[in-house]
Amino acid sequence: MDLQNYTFVSEFVLQGLCTSRHLQKFFFILFSGLYVVIVMGNTIIVATVVSNSRLHSSPMYFLLGNLSFLDIWLASFATPKMIRDFLSDRKLISFGGCMSQIFFLHFVGGAEMVLLVSMAYDRYVAICKPLHYMTVMSRNKCIELVMLSWTIGFVHSISQVAFTVNLPYCGPNEISSFFCDVPLVIKLACMDTYILGILMISDSGLLSLSCFLLLLISYTVILINVRQRATGGASKALSTCSAHIMVVTLFFGPCIFIYVWPFSRFSVDKLLSVFYTIFTPLLNPLIYTLRNKEMKTAMRKFRSFYSY
């Protein structure tokens, strides 16, 4: 297709969450507070894991620290822009900014999916093969798992952006959300993108669904093993796994709904997008810290150390 026949779109208009000025002022206060809590909560977890030698040497907490680091980025790729837009009449984003949001969304989201699988594998080894745990989950193995998650996230993100950025955009330029994502952006291209859209959404859907199935299998095997061992250690393992399962459900539920089924009802998709980008990074530190005595003890020590 000859792109010289088209006027290049240099910016997009975001519809945002709502049009009511009163609601936008309320959302500005609400999401500003939530964003501060997300960044502070996850930063404290990362700092606690890094500063505590016992936690830093533990595979589970090493992976948890990396999860919190990713959650900070997941909450930051679009939330500050959304908060600022609540006070703006026209919610504009440049073409480059839009592509950057798509890149970071799929980079961080893809990396977090694979990291959650790695955390399930860590729990599987700890519960089903406890005598070999430190040998299997060595520091090098943990670093390899983290690097694998980042690599898969990067490759997945590049595949999404590479097709999206090269499409011809000549108007309209209004996106029915508060941030840019592939299904909403490619529908604005001046060409038939039905097949391309199916392929790109299938890419994200396949990653989400395959990771979710791996997690489902892993935790099923773990729960079967825990049920066969009616001991105190098993009950502690069950408590840890239940926290992981809650995070997995909260994270993958919206992802699978959005990318396995195409965007059709924007009100539902906006709600899921808010849950996926804001409430999941908010709930992760709450779930892991409130249900974990060792983490709470380490955080108290960290707080008391820096209070002097």
What can you tell me about this protein's structure?
The chain has a three-stranded mixed beta sheet. Helices cover 76% and strands 3% of the residues. The chain has twelve helices and three strands. The protein is globular, with a radius of gyration of 21 Å. It has helices spanning 21-51, 53-56, 59-76, 79-85, 95-128, 133-136, 139-165, 182-186, 194-228, 232-260, 266-290, 293-307; strands spanning 11-14, 92-94, 174-175. It starts with 10 loop residues before the first strand and ends with a helix. It is mainly alpha-helical and 308 residues long. Helix 5 packs antiparallel against helix 7.
Give a short synopsis of this structure:
The chain has 308 residues and is mainly α. The chain contains twelve helices and three strands.
Our Rg estimate from Cα atoms comes to 21 Å
User: H/E element string?
Assistant: EHHHHEHHHEHHHHH
Number of strands: 3
Structural class: mainly alpha
- The tally of helices reads 12
**Termini separation (Å)?**
66 Å
Strand content: under 5%
Q: How would you write the strand order of the largest sheet? A: 2-1-3
Main sheet record: 3 strands, mixed
Query: What is the averaged pLDDT score?
Result: 83
Global outline:
globular
Q: Uncertain runs with pLDDT below 50, 5 residues or more?
A: none
Give helix % range: over 70%
